[in-house]
């Protein structure tokens, strides 16, 4: 297999790109070798060598703890719990949340064999117990697995007495945060509701 075919093969594995699109992208990159391909190679190399998961929240950054966890202007007593880093980035785009985050690393899924031990739930409970957290905002996706995960996390947090809320209005059932517009995410964040017996 020659270099171009190998490039096309790897590009075709990216989300949203099939073999035909991958060929077009490969050709475009080759034509723009100096201005795009070589800088892109350097960017990929930098990411592969320097990006790591934050030891506190699970975000991706060149440093750990990440910039968000180190930001003293953020409210350390409010945690927004999300499934993936992409969801964190989606909320950050809105600039409407001033607390900190906790990335679970996925959601509970019996079909995929993902149980509580596969997610960052124990570390969340530990953070709540150690860091004087006043509120947990559950921002898992409104899918069946996302809802199951939110209920499980709320149950695990119940003994701590922390207030637990859930994103509400504006997020459609079956919707994923990364695909929603900024206005919808902002409205959902401000209209969050209580989960369980805790008052909002």
Tell me about this structure.
This protein is elongated. The mean pLDDT is 91. The strands form 2 sheets. A 5-stranded mixed sheet has the order 4-3-5-6-7. Strands 1-2 form a two-stranded antiparallel ribbon. It is built from 8 helices and 7 strands, in the order αααββαβαβαβαβαβ. The protein folds into 2 domains: 3-47, Helicase, Ruva Protein, domain 3, CATH 1.10.8; 74-194, Dna Topoisomerase Vi A Subunit, Chain: A, domain 2. It is an alpha/beta fold. It has helices spanning 3-11, 19-31, 33-50, 67-70, 85-94, 121-130, 144-157, 182-190; strands spanning 52-53, 60-61, 78-82, 100-103, 135-138, 163-166, 193-194. Helix 1 crosses helix 2 (19-31) and helix 5 crosses helix 8 (182-190).
Topology:
Elements: H1 3-11, H2 19-31, H3 33-50, E1 52-53, E2 60-61, H4 67-70, E3 78-82, H5 85-94, E4 100-103, H6 121-130, E5 135-138, H7 144-157, E6 163-166, H8 182-190, E7 193-194
Helix pairs in contact: 1-2, 5-8
What distinguishing features does this structure have?
44% helix; alpha/beta; five-stranded mixed β-sheet; 200 residues; two-stranded antiparallel sheet; 7 strands; Dna Topoisomerase Vi A Subunit, Chain: A, domain 2; 2 domains; elongated; 12% strand; single chain; Helicase, Ruva Protein, domain 3
Q: How many DSSP-defined strands? A: 7
- What portion of residues belong to β-strands? 5-15%
CATH architecture of the largest domain: 3-Layer(aba) Sandwich
What is the spatial order of strands in the main beta sheet? 4-3-5-6-7
Task: Look at the structure and give the CATH class of the largest domain.
Answer: Alpha Beta
Query: Which ranges are low-confidence, i.e. pLDDT below 50, for 5 or more consecutive residues?
Result: none
Order of helices and strands: HHHEEHEHEHEHEHE
Net shape: elongated
Total number of helices: 8
Which secondary-structure class do the elements indicate?
A: alpha/beta
Please give the share of residues in helix. 40-55%
End-to-end separation in angstroms reads 60 Å
Average residue pLDDT: 91
As for the CATH topology of the largest domain, it is Dna Topoisomerase Vi A Subunit, Chain: A, domain 2
How does the major sheet shape up? 5 strands, mixed
**Tally of individual domains:** 2
Based on CA atoms alone, the radius of gyration comes out at 20 Å
């Amino acid at each position: 297999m020659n270099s171009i075919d190998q490039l096309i093969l790897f590009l075709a594995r990216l989300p949203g790109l099939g073999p035909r699109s991958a060929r077009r992208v490969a050709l475009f990159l080759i034509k723009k070798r100096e201005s795009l391909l070589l800088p892109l190679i350097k960017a990929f190399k930098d990411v592969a060598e320097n990006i790591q998961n934050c030891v506190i929240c699970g975000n991706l950054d060149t440093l750990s703890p990440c910039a968000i966890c180190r930001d003293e202007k953020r409210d350390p007593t409010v945690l927004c719990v999300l499934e993936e880093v992409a969801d964190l980035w989606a909320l950050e785009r809105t600039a409407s949340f001033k607390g900190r985050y906790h990335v679970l690393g996925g959601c509970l899924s019996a079909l995929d064999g993902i149980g509580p031990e596969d997610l960052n739930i124990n570390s969340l409970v530990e953070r709540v117990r150690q860091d004087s957290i006043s509120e947990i905002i559950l921002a898992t996706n409104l899918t069946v697995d996302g809802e199951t995960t939110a209920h499980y996390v709320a149950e695990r947090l119940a003994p701590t007495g922390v207030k637990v809320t859930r994103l509400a209005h504006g997020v459609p059932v079956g919707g994923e945060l990364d695909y929603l517009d900024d206005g919808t995410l902002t409205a959902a964040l401000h209209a969050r509701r209580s989960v369980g017996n805790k008052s909002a």
